[in-house]
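pls ignore typos typing on phone
zinc ion + seq
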Amino acid sequence: MTQQKTNPKRDIHWADNIAETVRKRAQEDPILKKVVKQKGYIVYDEKTPSGRIHIGAGRGWVIHDCIAKAMRDKGMRAKFILSSDDIDPFDKMNKDLPASYKKYLGVPFRNIPSPVKGYESFADYYFSECTQKFEEYGIEAEIQSTGHAYDKGLFNRTIKIALDNADKIQEIYSRFSRKGSIGTKRLPFNPICEKCGKIGTTYAYEWDSAREVVKYRCEANLVDWAKGCGYEGEVSPYDGLGKFPWKVEWAAKWPTIGVSVETAGKDHFTYGGSRSVAIAISDEVFDFPPPFPSSRKDIGKAYEFFTIGGKKMSTSKGMGVSFVGMTDYAPATLLRYLLVKTRPHAVIDFDPVGTNKIILLYESYDRTERIYYDKERIANEKEAQHEKRVYELSHVDPIKKTMPIQIPFTYAAALVQITGDAGPAMDALVRTGHVPVSISAGEKKYIVERLAYAKRWVDEFAPDDYKFIVSKSVSGKMKGDLSDAAVSALLLFRDKLLKKREYTENECMELIKEVVNESGIAPRQFYRAAYLALLNKEHGPKLTSLIKMIGQKETVLILTTLEK
Ligand SMILES: [Zn+2]
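k done
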């Protein structure tokens, strides 16, 4: 390769740093060097499609995608492969499934019918509902099927090595797990029962290396979640007739696929957990350096959880927030931005319901965007560079030459409460000059999407502080709450508004100052009175913006109802 030498200066973004570290490792390790020469840098992730997939897994997908992108930006030949572990056994019912699915417990997911029509299998349904969203999230992945890889015989070589070294693998299991655990006794291969089709219930007890067959039993009590049929037989372990147990499979994938990077959630990285066992097997049995962040010697650091409202929720319980469902709260672009901006080692706790977290996310995104386009200057040059790189890596479509029109989310949320919906809100933005008349369809779509999310936020998730209804007239009760001084200040303001058909927000601000000076009322009292009159609340969105949103004429009409 004719790439420039390693840059001694540290990169500004975590994904760029990882790319550089991985490049260095490949230069230093002869095995990795050969793999990379042949296949390029494979950034790999995998997921069992056991049900609706949690956003925590989505965090991993964006992280891997981002690393592969950062590598390509450095001129490295890199791609992200995501494999569906669709030959894993169905081991837990979830609440979305009919009771009739109990009979499939123990069967590989790819051999179970889809709970929804139109999909090849259970595995296909749950996996493709996620991958269908990849374009929205800007994830570029080559989608593979682990079951298919077995069918094609890709694992045949590692299966033979593993079975020939079964004692070594059993020893590794006993090093990490409690005495008597199943991995310390059985052969590292689970055939699919030829009689009942289950894979979760088979126990391989003999490997005939000369004939290359394994003897196995389909046991009634091997696991407590599925019952085997009692069949006993022998079968070739190759070409998809069975699979490795999970931890062995993890290790076998690395040399088979040629993986340079594969990180995982920290639940896999506990001492003695699946990653420790896989690293030992990769090193001692397959003689292959485990992918970043691990090495032969060191497990490295996993990525942190993505929790919703402080809870880490699991997929199989059917609880929590799914990868697919997250776009109910915010557009995929913003969720990707959140994941790109946050270092993988930091916990993300996102509680979109009844909080201002969504506002903060939009504000943070808009700020990054302004910094990217040099519309907002910040003193810290390093931070500015970081924000710009975050913007690049979060961007799904090619970045536009000019900055998109930003409608602050709080403004959007106030506006849709006045207009009732996104469409009329868009018209109001054009009418008030926030948006030019001649914008492209793409620009319009972008703004309407934000208004629609604002509408949904107000309707379903916003705290009461952000909700209001514009008064048609000032109620009698409200009048009672307002002092005479407040009423006359508001009427004075009304008179000033009447002098010109359309004041700008700045001019409106000047009018408020005049009213405060002339009437002698404290500014705070004036604002309180104005919000009470217009919204029946003591607080609200920025008053001058609110007046523009309600309309100057309508504001005048409301204030006029203060007259006796
Ligand atoms: Zn069976």
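The radius of gyration is 30 Å. The chain is about 45% helix and 10% strand. more later
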